[in-house]
């Protein structure tokens, strides 16, 4: 099986695509459940809906479905599922037929693959990712009004996934067939696409496709109400002497206009904390295309992106629970074209030469990375 | 024609309802365009897309369609249109057919009723409100990233309308036929409904129906990013010695869980500033029903609702530009059942007797209002 | 003894006044220690330094001295001490001599009157208030960096006291002799002073004198870092169905320019939560005088002051633990001159006649209070 | 003259030190007055008190003295004065006598050296810095309540200076003689001091001494009310495509516990934006000593300090307007001992070996800087 043949376009099925409502939860395999619990519950404050010795089911403060994150004990860190909610029970059938027509490995579980979720279908999609689709789910208390339970950095919603895949246009075409719409992307003047953001719910994304060796999981993102909530998470990590979990940020994204922070969990899974992107629900919502050399595209303040953010990502599993092999990206890498000997970035287009003297040292440093 | 016969149910048309995307703009008639401009542009910071001697077209910072608010010079303050965007040009046709079947007065303007909007239909709906439906609209710069233009209280989105109508269940049935879904409502133990919130986009509402003499416009609401933005608007009004434009708040709503402020514009039109309600886009999103006697339903902190907020609202116009007569509410009023000789409110259900001594004076005062 | 003879000026001692550093703590008598603990520790998040069956010693997050608040079990709610820290051990001697010369009742406790504090002097001052002065104090961990312990509404500093006394100019003269400086006050055109704010540390106040029957304690105030922290306290009170503890606010003060909230504890003791006044440490810091009729003086947004805020305050104790009798104010009351039949307030000076129509109902209501 | 002989202690004068109230303003020489005005007025929003073709006098929103910053046109970027306010006119005389006894170059200007300031003394202090002391100053409107003039990133106070000097203990001893108190410092186990923070007003500092080749000016700092104000400055710089003015941050300091951002002005002068340190006014305020190898001392979140922040600083002028030569630091440099081949930093003391795998790449990178 060759899940990521960059040169082969994924065909559009004749079966109708399932009507996806939103990204709903991710299932993570972690190597030390207790240590992961410390991180997601005690540090980040996600709420335990239920747990047993093998798995913990967590939700955010405004969620009413059973969970937004499953942590499952395993031998090697990985992602077992990117799970989407569909609009009705019938849409689960549509998903099954859709992926069968695509020739993807498909499994159906009438009682769900995990606690709290009913009839579901899991597929290994044409890009190699383990996607799940479900409608039936246990309702739990929406804690939105329970301000007695809020912490300074309370996570209120699951916002999006982010996936690494070698061929972004191929992935975009496949996701558009599945009913997703592009809201923003990063390109260069030669037409190479480095990343694309796609949505079902009317935010900037339910998932994004980031160019790189894949299939891998780049990050899962939770939303806070305000920016100070994100700063509070940083402050708390400092107080707990866990600041090395901060990989990048906090900062303002160019893409999405959201305020962000990237953390790494005890297994290295990347978690973004994110707030305040914009409404994208109109059918003619303008797509924003960023120049890959624009130094404000990923951080609006021009702060550098650490190399690990570009290069590291989580293994994803096939439907048998085996790690998916990855395929390298054949096009140029975003990191390479923006920093280092072969790359460049600008703050003001056409103004590369007029950088203030005091800044040039740092830029040269950037070039050495 | 008797637009608001409380005892008559509005029939469900056999024509399909138009697919409404979201509330898009309101057209207000104001009696002193210059003075209204001072308020909406200089004080609140809405952005002028275009203007002439008779009208001003305003938008919020994250908007990409031509406007969210039209101020039009006129002799008497009123509301000329509650305008919704639909998903495609064909949906405008559907709206026309739908309301014709309902027997409502309907007008079609292929070039739009206002600058910036194309093919539109306006109707006087069965509740007596001037509703507009359009798809075609001029795109303008989305100023989301233009932080050089932000003020401390920047308004970033149009969030919702709020309408006063005598018979809330009748209005809800009509709006559900139109494809809206109830997210929250206020009832009493006897089954009287005092208000209901309804949405198309996945927030708590695109419009709400508030029980009272109607048809009248209760308020139009704009969103800020964070709570401090709303406080900044209050601070600025104080600095300009315009604090008497603040009618109620700021505070936290029980209903919607949003942070809010109510202002009155120079004509008395009510404007809400609003931030941080929650995602409601799932098909089985739980409806929240509040007890009308719960003193935290309209202000989560128990702060009193001023009487004018209950009793005053803006006149709406028919399609000829004449003020619509209003019909009184026949059921009990929310204000009457919650304060005054015949009303009561509780902080803790069943705990009316154990109020701290220092608070009883104020509660008695409340009863005297 | 007649502690509050409004017509008698308090003489200036020839002894030097003690060098007061700041307000340091208040000792409150509460009638149900467990219930008060619930309020101050579980709801407001003050930190317990130590406690026993009769008393609880509490501090704020940035404090390094033993406590900022003592709750002591007693039969009747009262204030046992307003305690100030002085610059050195010798200044305690100065305080003792100073008040002895004034003829005030004075007690010295070489081991302190309460746990955690050493050599102290307590006096019943010429206005009738139980004042304490100490230098020696046990140091405890300053929790400023312990973000793992912060709640969304964390109280970080004791900010000030507020005292009710019948004759404000008399009180001001006495406090100036004690080395305090006036930063702001409220007066009318006839020269009546309604309240004055006075400081040692360079904020707007360490204590304020509010005109009314006294001696009584109006409130004790704690600071948060930001405004959203104060809103979070309101939200939490709502979630706990304790919103009736909110007496007034949140709002922006005119006087002090701070953002505020007034709560009442289970005994009715008033607690202010306060943030962001300004630096006042220069010797020629400009005094700000507010017109008592300026409707933005106490709330910059013009929101009404509830009557209980003007009329209710806590009993203070003499050095034997007996309630101090109060003396009525002989001058006009701020509440009476600003609302009701004999009062008036303006938003814009000279603009009383041009209030918008929609606002006049509320103002008439105000006049009826 | 050898202003910075690291081995020579600066003697304590027998003359009394002037009673310094606070840091009051800095005078900067800039090479393009128009361009500097764009930065400080149009971007940062400082208020112009007055200006002419050679100089601009700027103040922050809560200031009531004439200015906090003077920009003066000159040929080479430099600092002409670090100016402190003293408690009375007589204290200016004391300053003159004090520095004359120290043998420092001293100038007295009865009408002030700059507009808005009266009788002043300027000295070239024993460390080589141009220090000014004044009492007499023109009062201007304190704009604290003028919320109509606030920008999202409004600067409300001058907070502190920061100076680079080769021998920190020598500088501390000199400043303590001048009446300053140390609040925090950075040391290593061998007793080397890398930096010290010192205050007159009860914040963490009025000035700090940073070890390095000196005398040079490291930065001047302005305060905002809240953290989001600092983020708004970054957002605005991004919108103006001036993000390359951001040198470091935003972040949370370990030292001072404040939230911070470092900018570079068009001449490379470093400006810090700063908010929410803590009260330090008690005479026994605990000094906080940080281990130089603690990776959270300068950024509580462990984000790296860019090399330019350590190595670059502004030239200071002598009283004749000539650039002061600098003397190298003879002790180890903070940058060298914390990163690179000879340095190390830890997140958890004693836990250098257990860093997560995904983080080690970055740390190795750190070592290569």
UniProtKB/TrEMBL annotation, chains A, B, C, D:
Residues 359-369 have a biased composition (Basic and acidic residues). Its cofactor is Fe(2+). GO terms for molecular function: dioxygenase activity; ferrous iron binding. Pfam families: Glyoxalase (PF00903). Residues 344-369 are annotated as: Disordered. Residues 22-136, 157-276 form the VOC domain. SUPFAM superfamilies: Glyoxalase/Bleomycin resistance protein/Dihydroxybiphenyl dioxygenase. It comes from the Bacteria. Keywords: Aromatic hydrocarbons catabolism, Dioxygenase, Iron, Metal-binding, Oxidoreductase. Belongs to the extradiol ring-cleavage dioxygenase family. This is 3,4-dihydroxyphenylacetate 2,3-dioxygenase. The lineage of its organism: Bacteria, Bacillati, Actinomycetota, Actinomycetes, Micrococcales.
